[in-house]
């Protein structure tokens, strides 16, 4: 057993890239305890009391922001949200200046979402506190990948050897990239499925098997993970129409039968019901979609806790 | 006034020879071994070159900024200034002013915009701009989408004897992208276009050049497919030349890892097989010109998320040492390198410069091809946006003369 900070030596969590398999597993283990705690009435914990957590969201988000806010509050942190719409970013302030402003306010941990790939790393290089990536462009969304991995591990017993199909708009998806990195690191068999117009080039170099035929991809699947397709990409730019997308890539009850009978259905939300996923599937017995949301809070609590241990002087981490 | 450059190793078109070079009234009057030039005039000033290399001053075919100090340090005496300025070089008055701002230290040869405001729609006043000092016309760092407009640009420029300098990226394929499609771009989550965006543009422009008889210089060619098209076109007798910058010879797209915005270039860095094809294109003569593409950007334009950062690198100060790496690695000989850096770009621009021959202006570069140093962006004359920061290199300009006057 490796003790303390040696098991997770990273200052920031900017992505799954760069994490060792045992480090991912460590974060999942840490999250497990919060899953149980969150189910009780006494959800409070004060380990982050007195610390300031700033959620700086340069791109609109409801669920992720809420999830980080709840996670921080359950650990006793003073949580402050900064929305781009209310911020000086709209007045032309550069990202670096914003970062330095946040830094000067002595945040103890920054949670950042931004529409440009690489923006979170840029900020992480400029501030003195740990930075947690809540999604940067189409690059990474590490806590989503961790909550998905936790959901799979709890429901399927293990991640290694599971056949996971990720289907939808992979090209623009940070969720897909982070999930591919974490699931392949944890030895799952990952299949990706999309029309070629929505498939990232050279995706096979990330150790996944690409499919354009969803039916073929679903054969023998243990987990089916659907991605959201943005409305503006369904009107002829990447696919001809929503109904044609549903025809080829919609997860319907009939199609789901091609997967294993007990296959898990997942979606990072928000869903386009009736397009990439049918309500019967989304609300059906195989769906883990609401559980994902619950896992999200637990995973984010674990990440906030672990990343601040060094500064809090937790024994073995200082 | 006469200047005698003695004890030099002269970089001549057909080899490097020890000897003396004589300059009178700003022009080269004699080149040869010490014995053939025995009658040094009594009033001659002597410059002892100490056995170092004396070469034609570099002619840099395509810079985005006038940066006199960087050029002097880099051994560059003439630059072709891209029309992508503010305001755009599409008006005779602006062209004339651009031609003058470098004096007296730097020859600036403005490239006039081929279309008004570089918008790719209406022809600009090329003849007026030519009279105002434009040596060529260019489409800027963009793409003329309409083939009819491009055909007319080429035909009209051909009538005036002007070469058309093009940028080869199909505008549709590269719209909204900042990288070459491949593993690196996918891992970083950067919007990317397939490398054939270049060949697609080259193919169209070569056919139009062939059809119109116009002379075309493709400023940067960076992919194997496009080089093959150019090789074949040259064999057919199409009047095409092409160039490249050192970045595409020494770096591939994995230099973008960690979102290094200094590696955000236009065209973007390519994969390793394309980089090797470019080295082969240098060796076999398909590529005619090496240019700096000098485009200094300060932190306000580069310290941004990758996709939001400006494209381009500061290249003037590193053009010589990065090009000398090609000699060290055996891709070209030293005399051939100066064809790429001086003689060929001068020919593209129609200048009687670029070689150490009698009658040419005395644009001279004395350099040491051995001295080791480390590239340090912080020390650059203007901005230090170089993807080669920290790289140990060899070779540096020692002294530079423009028209016989030392800079």
Describe the structure.
Chain A has 11 helices and 9 strands. In chain A, the strands form 2 sheets. Chain A has a 5-stranded parallel beta sheet with strand order 7-6-5-8-9. In chain A, α2 packs across α11. In chain B, strands 1, 2, 3, 4, 5, 16, 17 and 18 form an 8-stranded mixed beta sheet that branches. In chain B, strands 6-7-8-9-10-13-14-15 form an 8-stranded parallel beta sheet. The longest helix of chain B has 17 residues. Chain B is globular, with a radius of gyration of 21 Å. The model of chain B has no long low-confidence stretch (mean pLDDT 95). The chains are: A alpha/beta (318), B alpha/beta (407). Chains A and B meet through α4 of A and α6 of B. Chain B: InterPro entries: Amidohydro-rel, DHOase, DHOase/Allantoinase_Hydrolase, Metal-dep_hydrolase_composite, Metal_Hydrolase. Chain B: This is Amidohydrolase family protein. Chain B: It comes from Sphingomonas mollis.
Report the mean per-residue pLDDT of chain A as an integer: 93
What is the helix fraction of residues of chain A, given as a range?
25-40%
- The CATH topology of chain B corresponds to TIM Barrel
**Gyration radius of chain A, in Å:** 19 Å
Shape of chain B: globular
Number of strands of chain B: 18
Going across the biggest sheet of chain A, name each strand in turn.
7-6-5-8-9
Mean pLDDT of chain B: 95
Largest interface: which pair? A-B, 24 and 22 residues
Give me the Rg of chain B, rounded: 21 Å
Q: What's the oligomerization state?
A: heterodimer
With helices defined by DSSP (H or I, 4 residues minimum), what is the helix count of chain A?
A: 11
Structural class of chain A: alpha/beta
Strand content of chain A: 5-15%
Classified in CATH, the superfamily of chain B is Metal-dependent hydrolases
Question: Sheet bearing the most strands of chain B, described?
Answer: 8 strands, mixed
Spans of chain B of 5+ residues with little confidence (pLDDT < 50)? none
The CATH architecture classification of chain B is: Alpha-Beta Barrel
Number of helices of chain B: 13
Tell me about the biggest sheet of chain A?
5 strands, parallel
Keywords (chain B): Pyrimidine biosynthesis
Domain Amidohydrolase-related (chain B): 136-406
Protein name (chain B): Amidohydrolase family protein
Organism (chain B): Sphingomonas mollis
């Amino acid at each position: 057993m490796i003790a303390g900070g040696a098991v997770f030596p990273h200052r920031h969590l900017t992505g799954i890239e760069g994490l060792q398999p045992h480090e991912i597993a460590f974060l999942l283990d840490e999250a497990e305890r919060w899953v149980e705690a969150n189910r009780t009435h006494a959800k409070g914990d004060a380990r982050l009391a007195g610390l300031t957590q700033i959620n700086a969201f340069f791109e609109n988000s409801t669920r992720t922001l809420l999830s980080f806010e709840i996670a921080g509050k359950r650990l006793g942190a003073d949580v402050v949200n900064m929305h781009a719409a209310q911020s000086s970013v709209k007045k032309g302030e550069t990202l670096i200046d914003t970062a330095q402003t946040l830094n000067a306010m002595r945040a103890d941990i920054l949670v950042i979402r931004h529409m440009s790939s690489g923006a979170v790393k840029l900020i992480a290089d400029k501030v003195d506190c740990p930075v947690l990536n809540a999604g940067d462009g189409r690059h990474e969304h590490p806590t989503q990948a961790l909550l998905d991995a936790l959901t799979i591990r709890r429901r399927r017993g293990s991640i290694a050897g599971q056949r996971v199909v990720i289907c939808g708009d992979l090209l623009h998806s940070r969720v897909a990239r982070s999930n591919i990195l974490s699931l392949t690191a944890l030895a799952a068999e990952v299949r990706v499925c999309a029309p070629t117009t929505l498939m990232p080039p050279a995706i096979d170099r990330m150790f996944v098997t690409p499919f354009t035929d969803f039916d073929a991809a679903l054969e023998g699947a243990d987990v089916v993970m659907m991605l959201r397709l943005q409305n503006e990409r369904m009107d002829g730019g990447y696919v001809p129409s929503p109904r044609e997308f549903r025809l080829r890539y919609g997860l319907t009850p009939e199609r789901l039968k091609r997967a294993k009978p007990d296959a898990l259905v997942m979606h990072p939300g928000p869903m386009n019901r009736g397009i990439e996923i049918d309500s019967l599937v989304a609300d059906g017995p195989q769906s883990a979609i609401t559980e994902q949301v619950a896992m999200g809070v637990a995973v984010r609590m674990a990440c906030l806790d672990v990343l601040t241990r060094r500064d809090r002087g937790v024994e073995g981490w200082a | 006034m006469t200047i005698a450059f003695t004890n030099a190793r002269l970089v001549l078109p057909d080899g490097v020879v020890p000897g003396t070079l004589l300059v009178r009234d700003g022009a080269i009057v004699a080149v040869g071994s010490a014995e053939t030039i025995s009658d040094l005039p009594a009033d001659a000033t002597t410059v002892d070159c100490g056995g170092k290399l004396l070469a034609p001053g570099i002619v840099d075919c395509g810079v985005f900024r006038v940066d006199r100090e960087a050029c002097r340090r880099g051994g560059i005496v003439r630059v072709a200034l891209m029309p992508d300025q503010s305001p755009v070089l599409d008006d005779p008055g602006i062209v004339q002013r651009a031609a003058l701002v470098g004096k007296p230290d730097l020859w600036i040869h403005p490239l006039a915009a081929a279309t008004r405001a570089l918008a790719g729609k209406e022809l600009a006043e090329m003849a007026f701009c030519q009279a105002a000092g434009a040596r060529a016309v260019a489409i800027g760092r963009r793409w003329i989408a309409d083939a009819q407009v491009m055909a007319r640009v080429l035909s009209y420029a051909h009538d005036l004897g002007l070469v058309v300098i093009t940028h080869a990226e199909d505008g549709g394929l590269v719209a909204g992208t900042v990288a070459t499609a491949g593993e690196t771009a996918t891992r970083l989550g950067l919007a990317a276009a397939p490398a054939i965006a270049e060949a697609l543009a080259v193919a169209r422009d070569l056919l139009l050049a062939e059809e119109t008889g116009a002379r075309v210089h493709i400023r940067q060619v960076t992919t194997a497919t496009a080089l093959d098209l150019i090789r074949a076109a040259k064999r057919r007798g199409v009047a095409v030349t092409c160039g490249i910058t050192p970045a595409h010879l020494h770096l591939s797209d994995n230099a973008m890892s960690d979102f290094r915005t200094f590696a955000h270039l236009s065209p973007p860095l390519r994969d390793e097989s394309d980089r090797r094809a470019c080295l082969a294109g240098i060796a076999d003569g398909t590529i005619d010109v090496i240019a700096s593409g000098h485009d200094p950007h300060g932190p306000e334009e580069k310290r941004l998320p990758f996709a939001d950062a400006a494209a381009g690198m500061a290249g003037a100060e590193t053009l010589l040492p990065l090009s000398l790496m090609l000699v060290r690695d055996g891709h070209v000989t030293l005399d051939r390198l100066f064809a790429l850096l001086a003689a060929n770009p001068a020919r593209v621009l129609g200048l009687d410069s670029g070689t150490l021959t009698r009658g040419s202006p005395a644009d001279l570069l004395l350099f040491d091809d051995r001295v080791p140093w480390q590239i340090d962006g912080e020390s650059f004359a203007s901005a230090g946006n170089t993807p080669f920061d920290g790289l140990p290199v060899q070779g540096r300009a020692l002294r530079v003369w423009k028209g016989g006057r030392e800079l």
